[in-house]
Amino acid sequence: EVQLVESGGGLVQPGRSLRLSCTASGFTFGDYAMSWVRQAPGKGLEWVGFIRSKAYGGTTEYAASVKGRFTISRDDSKSIAYLQMNSLKTEDTAVYYCTRDVKVIPIGAFDIWGQGTMVTVSS
Amino acid sequence: EIVMTQSPATLSVSPGERATLSCRASQSVSSNLAWYQQKPGQAPRLLIYGASTRATGIPARFSGSGSGTEFTLTISSLQSEDFAVYYCQQYNNWPVTFGQGTKVEIK
């Protein structure tokens, strides 16, 4: 079964850091681009960032709201994607979803989603 | 960034009826448009990408159309499990952006 499982969420104070993990199974992780998408309570979906597969350079893209604070990385040997979140703000409070690109060619549409992990930024 | 606008915000439909959801982009996104369905407490599910290509396992009652700036998701005969929030998303330009969602509710 193709699956993504996020972990690492929780309650954190403003200005602190948190690292989320996304563990993949059921497919060749290294072949696909991976993204993080978040959803604040009661709100819509917001794309956070994206990492291409090594075949496409392994490069990243970020939303303006997180650029310079968040970093996406991947460990293909472990089938894990990471979201390192620094200098957290209260407005970063959301459910964070890990997603897989629908095609091996990275296009930015997402066919596999994890169950999400909640991040709450509050003092 | 490209702004995606969905209409209506809420659509009240009876089971078995047809539902038509609209999505407009602030500039052309070619056919690089996806639709997602989200039910309460669940992750979104990809329905359509490439404006009209159904994702794996998506029933034929879901269809997408459009290109450029105007797109439509049609659900031909609403089933009970189709009542949910639907989001469009463009992936023609970075950052990829989502619409604000259309809630399809039971009439």
Q: Can you give a write-up of this model?
A:
The complex is a heterodimer of chains A (123) and B (107). By secondary structure, chain A is mainly β. Helices cover 0% and strands 50% of the residues of chain A. Chain A has no helices and eleven strands. Chain A has strands at 3-7, 10-12, 18-25, 34-39, 45-51, 60-62, 70-75, 80-85, 94-101, 110-113, 117-121. In chain A, strands 2, 4, 5, 6, 9, 10 and 11 form a seven-stranded mixed sheet that branches. In chain A, strands 1-3-8-7 form a four-stranded antiparallel sheet, with no helix packed on it. In chain A, strand 4 and strand 5 (45-51) form a beta hairpin. Chain A is globular, with a radius of gyration of 14 Å. The model of chain A has no long low-confidence stretch (mean pLDDT 97). Chain B is an all-beta fold and 107 residues long. Chain B has no helices and eleven strands. In chain B, strands 2, 4, 5, 6, 9, 10 and 11 form a seven-stranded mixed sheet that branches. In chain B, strands 1-3-8-7 form a four-stranded antiparallel sheet, with no helix packed on it. The radius of gyration of chain B is 13 Å and the shape is globular. The mean pLDDT of chain B is 97.
Note the main attributes of this structure.
heterodimer; A: 123 residues; mainly beta; 7-stranded mixed sheet; 11 strands; 0% helix; globular; B: 107 residues; 50% strand
Topology:
The complex is a heterodimer of chains A (123) and B (107).
Chain A: E1 3-7, E2 10-12, E3 18-25, E4 34-39, E5 45-51, E6 60-62, E7 70-75, E8 80-85, E9 94-101, E10 110-113, E11 117-121
Parallel strand pairs in A: 2-11
Antiparallel strand pairs in A: 1-3, 3-8, 4-5, 4-9, 5-6, 7-8, 9-10, 9-11
Chain B: E1 4-7, E2 10-13, E3 19-25, E4 33-38, E5 45-49, E6 53-54, E7 62-67, E8 70-75, E9 85-90, E10 97-98, E11 102-106
Parallel strand pairs in B: 2-11
Antiparallel strand pairs in B: 1-3, 3-8, 4-5, 4-9, 5-6, 7-8, 9-10, 9-11
